[in-house]
Design goal:
Helices cover 5% and strands 30% of the residues. It is mostly beta strands. The strands form three sheets. The protein has a five-stranded antiparallel beta sheet. Strands 6-5-8 form a three-stranded antiparallel beta sheet, with no helix packed on it. Strands 3-10 form a two-stranded antiparallel ribbon.
Length: 168
């Protein structure tokens, strides 16, 4: 536990921090918790939170968007979000009408400012998008929005604006 006056970990009998109990915490892959707010089209799993690791100022977890899937438009309130793409090709739409678009692949970081309406799409038909997410707070804020996705209104029915061509 922390010393309530200073935020420092409690000290042991030799007046040193008790790092054994209050130090580094490893959350194993099998310990992630999917009992967290979800958005249609993706699966979130919590790794680092107050409950799992004692974190006070941030939240971290994973997200998977399956092939041929997209999320519903949403935002995360006043939280800042960082996304690190591990596998696959993610397309992001954002803005009041999801009018802006860009893509990210393995090794890319994406920053999502507070209150930005956005949508994640799997830009490929053949593999899932897997990413790590870190947020600036503990609250599991997910505000799902009723905004039509531009892909739902294709100008030419033969176009496939939803997917990217495979990149080598």
């Amino acid at each position: 536990m922390s010393d309530s006056s200073s935020g420092e970990p409690q000290k042991n009998s030799s007046n040193r921090p008790d790092w054994k109990t209050h130090g580094l915490r490893i959350i194993r892959s099998g310990e992630l918790d999917s009992n967290t707010p979800q958005t249609p089209g993706m699966t979130r799993a919590e790794a680092i939170s107050h409950a799992s690791a004692g974190a006070k100022k941030l939240w971290a977890g994973t997200v998977v968007v399956q092939p041929n899937a997209k999320t519903g438009p949403h935002h995360h309130g006043d939280l800042e979000t960082v996304i690190y793409v591990v596998r696959g090709r993610a397309r992001f739409r954002w803005g009041n009408n999801l009018e802006f678009v860009d893509e990210a692949g393995p090794g890319d970081f994406v920053y999502v400012p507070p209150y930005v309406p956005h949508q994640e799409l799997n830009a490929r038909k053949d593999e899932p998008v897997e990413a790590v997410i870190v947020r600036s707070g503990q609250e599991p804020i997910v505000v799902n929005l009723n905004i039509p996705s531009p892909e739902d209104v294709a100008e030419n029915p033969h176009d496939d604006p939803f997917h990217s061509a495979p990149r080598n």
